[in-house]
Amino acid sequence: MRLSRVKAILLLLLTVMITGEIPGVFRLHAEEPTGYYLGPEDVISIEVWGHPDLELREATVLPDGTVFVPLVGKVDVTGKTVEEVTALLEEEFSRLLVDPRVIVTVVKPKTIQVTVTGQVNRPGIYELKPGSSVSEAIAMAGGPTQRAELRKVLVSSRETGKEIKVKVGRRYHFSNEPGSDLELADGDRVFVPETWIPDSEKVYRYLTIISLLIGFATL
Questions:
Q1: What are the tens digits of pLDDT across the range 104-163?
Q2: Where are the domains of the chain?
Q3: Segment 12-38, tens digit of pLDDT
Q4: The listed CATH number (1.10.1740.10, 3.40.50.720, 3.30.390.10, 3.30.1950.10) that belongs to domain 43-108
Q5: Could you tell me the fold of the domain covering 111-192?
Q6: How far, in whole angstroms, is CA 32 from its chain's centroid?
Q7: Residue 150 in contact with residue 167, Cβ under 8 Å?
Q8: pLDDT at residue 92, as a whole number
Q9: Model pTM?
């Protein structure tokens, strides 16, 4: 029984030395709030329930950050989220209509906003062209650090709520393996984890402990 426990301890120590992780323990990374903020060149649609005559199928945000809305006039939408613009329009329409319900949709975003964190040189929120990839997001964030683990990049989708592990090759270009290429969407989060590099002093300490345990087990 004692020998089995020693073997289990040795196996655990070897696992930690090789992977740098304790089995059953997951590293958490902070999630930063994300959201798409409207700006010039965005194309949005505006619907008012029960009033098809007020519908705007495609309204392009002008360089001054405004859109023209029937019965309301110019509305400044720059720097606002879809939810904020919806609330603003409902307030404006409430002066003319009874309990208006407004639906605002981004038809064609000028850019997508992606949060890049972890082992990159400049973590933050970046604006990319629609269809941009994980490698392009990492490049925008200043590229990976020397301690970046590019084989286990995590992508969290705001749309689906799922987290996907992506393999990125050296020089942060995608490898040719299936599932390694991934197109990002607005609000996605890219997390580059840290690779585990053995510390010589810690390795010596582990080996000393292992030697003592082996000696103890043979008594």
A1: 999 988 888 899 999 999 999 998 987 789 999 999 999 999 899 998 999 998 878 888
A2: 1-20+199-219, 43-108, 111-192
A3: 555 555 444 444 433 333 333 345 788
A4: 3.30.1950.10
A5: Outer membrane lipoprotein wza fold like (3.10.560)
A6: 8
A7: yes
A8: 94
A9: 0.49
Q: Which two tokens stand for residue 25?
A: 């323990």
Token pair 């994980």 in the structure block, residue: 134
